[in-house]
Amino acid sequence: MTQPTLIFMGPDGPRFDGRKNKIYLRTLLYSTAKRGMVIESLHIALHRNDTKQNFNIWVYGERSELKRGSGLYVPQEGVALDHHFLQPEDGASFGFLAGAYRLTLFAKLVGDGAATELITIPLTITETRAAELAQPQTGLYFDWSPDQQSYHAHADSRPESAQLLQQLLGVIAEGGTKQPS
Question: Deepest of 6, 24, 94, 116, by most Cβ within 10 A of its Cβ?
Answer without folding.
Answer: 24
